[in-house]
TrEMBL record:
It is an enzyme of class 1 (oxidoreductase). Keywords: NAD, Oxidoreductase. PROSITE patterns: ALDEHYDE_DEHYDR_CYS (PS00070). One of its GO terms (molecular function) is oxidoreductase activity. InterPro entries: Ald_DH/histidinol_DH, Ald_DH_C, Ald_DH_CS_CYS, Ald_DH_N, Aldehyde_DH_dom, MeMal-semiAld_DH. Residues 13-479 form the Aldehyde dehydrogenase domain. It comes from Roseibium aestuarii. Its EC number is 1.2.1.27. This is methylmalonate-semialdehyde dehydrogenase (CoA acylating). It comes from the Bacteria.
Length: 499
């Protein structure tokens, strides 16, 4: 059986804890490798490597660090297919979707090439007589990134790009479910010229995460994953005085107004609801048509589209719309929630509970499901299902529809489909959700904007990528310098003010 270790100090190293987790091929259900789960001691060794490498890296001028990112972009493009193939084999998403996963991370690395500009400080010439004031952005030192299974290339790249180019060293703790791509990224960065020890990839589970949280050298933690773990990490990181941004789960609503183009809305819902088997934090999992007539028209358009979806292994290429979910436990949890929806009175208008794929009976495939007449009190509405399940909750009015999205505990993404500019503007302005689409179902901001949810979808300050990432991975030092023609007055005892 293949084993997957860590990448520490510029080398692949085997795990020494004796603990391993299974890495599946979700399409067949077979275990394809065992990944080492780091102990506290292994984590401490990686941090020591990072701490030794960081000052030398930080002392390089930002342009030189940016050039490593430039080369890294070339290498990511060169190895795109290789990365996407490995990603699909461990995650299960289609090959084209896996390329999108790498691509959306790569775009953040492209943004990081602008580090010299982004790291420029501020300067006030003549803040007082003979006084200049300037602020510098300095790296934090050693920082950590802890990432989820559903974007094993994109989210590690979102974390490591800004952190490294700003002059930090990083411990990346990727998901133990699909650990190979982050290790490949570390190899490519080394090839691009990143000094050894600046990026260390440590595989592991709760033990490694807790070791990160307890480690006094680590200054900041960027986390992405489920809300309970995001909350736990935010809490523990704050307790030990670390800077933390922890992004959590989601339940994204799409409101369909009576004036929307119903074909466009139905196509958007099918792509956003079922793409990547619904395992996206920006997936639309709730459709909210406004008015019964709109709902009837929407369901009529949705049913044939959902029934026509093709589910299969990534090796089937373009014949497949989405692949399996990540584990057997995930599949069982999704089916349990679907059954709870039926028991609690929702109407399952597309029912694939008996779905099985010939030749892949042991794979973690879940067929597409569509619910109508879902209500607020049902578990399928309250919980993040993270599977190919779209729930329709009918609202009588626009106010009721926006109220549903506003009252939900999650606040990652949302969308409205309408032809009316006034409604769209009102929605964008009032909604208490971090990322909003207007006739765009998955409004993932591009690399030079920032990504982040509100409410229980995000704990801590500042968003991911864009200018916020540079603020998160640096701290400001402000210098007040006085160069008077001569210091004649002697000591000053009152607080200085800029008169
Ligand atoms: P997860 O919370 O199970 O795992 C995320 C990370 O935390 C992994 O590295 C894992 O090893 C670690 N972890 C798991 N359990 C832990 C514990 N008890 N203590 C300490 N660390 C632990 O999440 P997942 O299943 O890998 O990813 C799916 C979740 O991530 C979904 O809820 C999804 O919405 C969310 N997500 C959010 C965003 C966002 O930007 N808001 C983006 C992608 C995914």
């Amino acid at each position: 059986m293949k084993t997957i270790g860590h990448f520490i100090g510029g080398k692949h190293v085997e795990g020494t804890s004796g603990r391993f987790a299974d890495v599946y091929n979700p399409a067949t259900g077979e275990v394809q490798a065992k990944v080492a789960l780091a102990s506290q001691a292994e984590l401490a060794a990686a941090v020591a490597n990072a701490a030794a490498a960081q000052p030398v890296w930080a002392a390089q001028n930002p342009q030189k660090r940016a050039r490593v990112m430039m080369k890294f972009v070339d290498l990511l493009n060169r190895d795109m297919d290789k990365l996407a193939d490995k990603l699909s084999s461990e995650h299960g998403k289609t090959f084209v979707d896996a390329k999108g996963d790498v691509q959306r991370g790569l775009e953040v690395i492209e943004f990081c090439i602008g580090a010299p500009h982004l790291l420029k400080g501020e300067f006030t010439d003549g803040a007082g007589p003979g006084i200049d004031m300037y602020s510098m952005r300095q790296p934090l030192g050693v920082v950590a990134g802890i990432t989820p299974f559903n974007f094993p290339a994109m989210i590690p790249l979102w974390k490591l790009g800004p952190a490294l180019v700003a002059g930090n060293a990083m411990i990346l703790k990727p998901s133990e479910r699909d650990p190979s791509v982050p290790l490949m990224l570390a190899e490519l960065l080394q090839e691009a010229g990143l000094p050894d020890g600046v990026l260390n990839v440590v595989n592991g589970d709760k033990e490694a995460v807790d070791a990160i949280l307890d480690n006094p050298t680590i200054q900041a933690v960027g986390f992405v994953g489920s809300t309970p773990i995001a909350h736990y990490i935010y809490h523990r990181a704050a307790e030990t005085g670390k800077r933390a941004q922890c992004f959590g789960g989601a339940k994204n609503h799409m409101i369909i107004m009576p004036d929307a183009d119903m074909d466009q809305a139905a196509d958007a819902l099918v792509g956003a609801g079922f793409g990547a088997a619904g395992e996206r934090c920006m997936a639309i999992s709730v459709a909210v048509p406004v008015g019964d007539e709109t709902a009837d028209r929407l369901i009529e358009k949705l049913v044939p589209r959902v029934e026509a979806l093709k589910v299969g292994p990534y090796t089937a290429g373009d014949d497949v719309d989405f692949g399996p979910v990540v584990t057997k436990a995930a599949k069982e949890n999704i089916l349990r929630l679907i059954n709870s929806g039926v028991e609690q009175g929702a109407k399952l208008v597309v029912d694939n509970r008996n779905f099985s794929l010939q030749g892949y009976e042991d794979g973690f495939f879940v067929g597409p499901h569509l619910f109508d007449h879902v209500t607020k009190d049902m578990d399928i509405y309250k919980t993040e299902i993270f599977g190919p399940v779209l729930s329709t909750i009918r609202a009588k009015t626009y106010e009721e529809a926006i109220g549903l999205a506003m009252d939900h505990e999650y606040g990652n993404g949302t969308a409205i489909f309408t032809r009316d500019g006034d409604t769209a503007r009102d929605f964008a302005s009032r909604i208490n959700i971090g990322m909003v689409g207007i006739n765009v179902p998955i409004p993932v901001p591009l690399a030079y904007h920032t990504f982040g949810g509100w409410k229980k979808s995000g704990f801590g300050d500042l968003n991911q990528h864009g200018p916020d990432a540079f603020k998160f991975y640096t701290r400001t030092k402000t210098v007040t310098a006085r160069w008077p023609s001569g210091i004649k007055e002697g000591a000053e005892f009152s607080i200085p003010t800029m008169k």
